[in-house]
Write a structure and sequence with these properties.
The structure is a homotetramer of 95-residue chains. With 95 residues, chain A is mainly alpha-helical. Chain A has 2 domains: 17-59; 60-95. In chain A, 66% of the residues lie in helices and 0% in strands. Chain A has helices spanning 23-56, 61-72, 75-91. Chain A starts with 22 loop residues before the first helix and ends with a helix. Chains in contact: A-B, A-C, A-D, B-C, B-D, C-D. Chain D binds a DNA duplex (16 and 16 nucleotides) through helix 1.
Chain lengths: 95, 95, 95, 95
DNA sequence: AACGCATAAGTAAGAC
DNA sequence: GTCTTACTTATGCGTT
């Protein structure tokens, strides 16, 4: 990192950040974040659109979300959790 | 929409979705969502990295987040809200 | 409600709230909210403690949360969702 | 804690929780959590009601939320954050 | 009834 | 390693 990008000097870098700000670097940071957030937002919209389309075709979005969630999990972990769940259900008379 | 994509027939589309599922369509939906979610996740990581780098350069990530939040708002709306906030603060002796 | 509690007059109640604030009412509102939020926070802590104790006794908190979640749902709704889930899984070869 | 409450034995407590469940203890845990969650839910409703009433009296709920948020912070911390915020704003020409 | 906001819960990362 | 804090997602609520 370029020294010019330092937001504070070395004397009290931890508690007094109110010195030596590089405006150009800060601007660049903000710009990059805003660009990425826009990208993320667009992707989120695209995801919502897919769910919405699926719903329009008679599918249940909530259940599709569940499918997505299940597929994200490690199969072995999933099996374990379901075994424990089954066990607890029985202990509670929910079997 | 193609009829083949219908998850339910026209007789009881609202309450009995358990017929006429097009597996290919459902698979495509799931694939698209998973692809988009991965994209979103990568973007989220990139955002975190920018904050992290900025922090390493002495900037306060929390305040940068606040900056991003403020810039996202409509300036006019923002001014109004701040005016009301100021008013409430005074009414509460927080001025 | 007492007229004195009005935050705005009748001329433009919707868009110009910057008049006629009753400081006492606003203070009361803030006090009530803060009191209730503290209460809520204490309850949340108590819940965490129960999970924590259960974990200490060898139970899996994640699965207990799942149990709680399942019990909150309407049994009929639950059955439907699980039937649809099963259907989708089969369509995706996850059966 | 009573040994009878143990959910697993000492041989493989970490990875095989599927033994020695005390159903009574599990039931008690679930009951306590459900009771506390109901309590929390009621408090949340009461909070919403206060905001709603305030809104009916012409106050802006969003700004009240901001007030609550600000008052929750440590005043010293708050001042510091605002100082940094001011600094960043100036660096970005948002002053 | 659909849309967005706001809360709440679960998850993951970072600090001590 | 624990423990809190922040981010993400999901649900519920109010609004239009």
């Amino acid at each position: 990192m370029d020294n010019a990008s330092c937001a504070s000097n070395t004397v009290n870098a931890d508690e007094n950040p109110i010195q030596d700000i590089d405006p150009g670097y800060l601007q660049a940071v903000v710009d990059r974040i805003e660009r990425l957030e826009e990208e993320k937002s667009e992707t989120a919209t695209a995801i919502r659109d897919v769910y919405s389309e699926a719903k329009g075709n008679g599918f249940d979005p909530k259940v599709i979300r569940e499918i997505i969630r299940l597929r994200k999990q490690d199969p072995h972990e999933l099996d374990e959790q379901e075994a424990i769940l089954h066990l607890y259900k029985q202990a509670l008379g929910m079997g």
